[in-house]
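JOB MANIFEST
job_type = single_chain_structure
chain_count = 1
residues = 285
[input]
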Amino acid sequence: MKQGKVISFLNMKGGVGKTTLCKDLAFYYANNLGKDILVVDIDPQSNCTQSFYEKFPTKAFDRDAEGNQTLKANIPSIHNLYDSSVVFPNESDVILELTDNLHIIPGDLKTLFMERNNNSTNEQKLAFVINKWKLKERYDFIFIDCPPTYSFYTTAALLGSDYYFIPSKPDLYSVLGLNMLTNVVDKFVEVDQALALNGRIIKCVGIVVTMSSESPGMYKRIEDIREFAQSKSIHIFEKTIPYYEKLLTGKMDTFIADRDDIKLEEIISSIATEFIERVEILNEQ
């Protein structure tokens, strides 16, 4: 029986490579290491979902007589979990199987309207189905791609999470953003959702620096992040993900594992290995 872990990919700032890291780690674990992975896209922008749809088009799209691509009818999505017209969905309404060991709860633009009807029951639905469907016994990792705001979606993700993981871009405001993020999570655990969590602590796997470059200014920003991490006793990952324009402007269906780039492959492999090591350490504490 597996003892899978749920990890939220979290940052209160956009444009830090959060979604890229979430999808590429998920794909690497499933494709290269044979891990059973579930990705949960709770970000209303659904960029993570779109990348997987483009990567596995036959799972997501139909083509008409003219060859035009349209989203399959009744495709599973996270919206079905929160749709008030559905008493309680089946797994097949929510989880889309991309491969034998890589599955996703797809994001849906309709979830933009979820917050209008949010309540404590809705906030706990994701955590509830993780337990009800015994998903931790089936997946090695459940990755949740969160939006870059503190909102209903973040609350729902964290309530179901064991850990959170922080991608951080080294810019002028990175430390301010990191400080705000860790304070938000601490308050979430100790005050806002203390009753729902019932003493459970959501630990930080660590910070990984993204979009780095070789310049004196960048070195200073990275050092600021390292000093912040040390002050908060947060682990910082050894490898940084360099700024690559092709990661931002390339096709959505192209993952790091698909690129003929030894350096990038070594970086994602190193982060994946260190990630597992960190989770094992935290699990023993």
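[summary]
The first helix runs from residue 18 to 32.
The chain has one domain: 5-284.
exit_status = 0
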